[in-house]
Design brief:
The protein is of the alpha/beta class. Helix content is about 40%, strand content about 10%. Helix 1 crosses helix 5 and helix 5 packs across helix 8. The protein starts with 6 loop residues before the first strand and ends in a 5-residue tail after the last helix.
């Protein structure tokens, strides 16, 4: 059988002799899944594009070349915009030093058309997961681009995700990037990675899935439990680095199991009992971060830990579609976490905040 060829990544950086830069190029090629070519930015911006194969990795600041070379008169974001216009099926990865963005990474993602932001200093210890993320991004782009080349409509994307009729309806409520029945690859990638797979509601990550089922996240990873839940596992684009489970399929499996063993009530309170009866073993419950008791049934947005709905309040940190689960924060976060922002709660919740802060006395 022929060996699978590596994806070819063009890395454009003005400091090609820098030890860190060359180390990144070398590390990206270690797995054999990527072949990284390091290139100094050309004076003519468009000339860079002729070298691009499967993905572009570009430094943010391209204007600090050595005195022997003519410096580029554009930034990496400018090159990224040109590549997106001319080659929309090409993943664009911005690479820089963390201090350059200084907390502006979300602003960059919102205002510049890049698919991933990486920090140079992270490569030293994390090159393996970073490489996997780049490979997964490329594969996702290519899977969607194949649909586009076949002139498939939005139904092709739904088939690629392997969504059921109910899940397709939920996806429609998540604001898919379709206009006049037309879609494009980069917008669909961003929608999938930044909305559909990011916010809990259509899919759940490991922590959310475990907590909504009322069990401890370590117990959720048990091989026997994973076998029970295997039909709910998402296997579509970007699943390699974003493990997810379809919410509706999880709840369907849970309801079937609880009914089989004669348990009735909310899934978070009955699934653990049903699994214990099915597997004949003890399963740890999801414990609330606030009072330390069972059974937690939600995840605190700030603490990223299980919490009971009764020990939490609604929180509005983002513009997630209404089909997604509501964000909630635990009383623990309200009282002790500096990341809690009281301007993100409604009037009723603010009364509880004041009480927890001791301001209503």
């Amino acid at each position: 059988m022929a060996e699978k060829s590596a994806f070819r990544v063009l890395y454009v950086d003005d400091e090609i002799t820098d030890r860190v830069t060359r180390g990144i190029q070398r590390r990206l090629s270690l797995s054999g899944e990527l072949e990284c070519t390091l290139l100094r930015p050309t004076v003519n911006l468009v000339e860079n594009i002729s070298y691009i194969q499967d993905a572009l990795l570009v430094d943010l600041d391209l204007t600090t070349q050595s005195s022997e070379e003519s410096p580029a008169s554009y930034f990496g974001s400018t090159l990224a915009a040109e590549v997106r216009l001319r080659n929309p099926a090409c993943p664009i990865i911005l690479i820089t030093r963390e201090q350059v963005l200084a907390g502006r990474d979300q602003l960059m993602k919102a205002n510049f058309d890049v698919d991933l932001i990486l920090y140079k200093d992270d490569f030293a210890d994390n090159y393996a997961p970073i490489t996997e993320e780049i490979v997964t991004l490329i594969r996702g782009f290519k899977a969607l681009d194949r649909l586009k080349q076949q002139n498939r409509g939005w139904e092709g994307v739904i088939e690629l995700l392997q969504a059921s009729a109910l899940e397709e309806a939920l996806l429609r409520e998540a604001g898919p990037p379709v206009q006049e029945r037309q879609w494009n690859v980069p917008q669909t990638v961003r929608w999938l990675r930044s909305i559909v797979l990011e916010y809990p509601g259509i899919f759940y990550d490991e922590l959310t899935a475990a907590t909504r089922l009322g069990i401890d996240v370590e117990a959720f990873g048990n091989a026997s439990i994973q076998e029970l839940l295997a039909p709910a596992k998402y296997v579509g684009p970007f699943s390699a680095t974003k493990p997810r489970w379809w919410r509706e399929r999880l709840f369907y499996i849970a309801r079937e199991l609880t009914t089989k063993h004669g348990f009735h009530g909310s899934i978070s309170r009955t699934f653990r009992d049903a699994v214990e009866a099915e597997l004949q073993t003890d399963i740890a419950p999801a414990l609330c971060v606030y009072d330390g008791t069972a059974t937690a049934d939600w995840v605190c947005y700030i603490e990223r830990k299980p919490v009971k709905q009764s020990n939490s309040i609604p929180y509005y940190p983002d513009n997630r579609p209404s089909v997604m689960d509501q964000a909630r924060v635990s009383f623990t976060a309200v009282k002790y976490n500096n990341k809690f922002d009281e301007t993100r709660v409604d009037k009723d919740a603010y009364d509880i905040v004041r009480e927890l802060w001791g301001l209503n006395r």
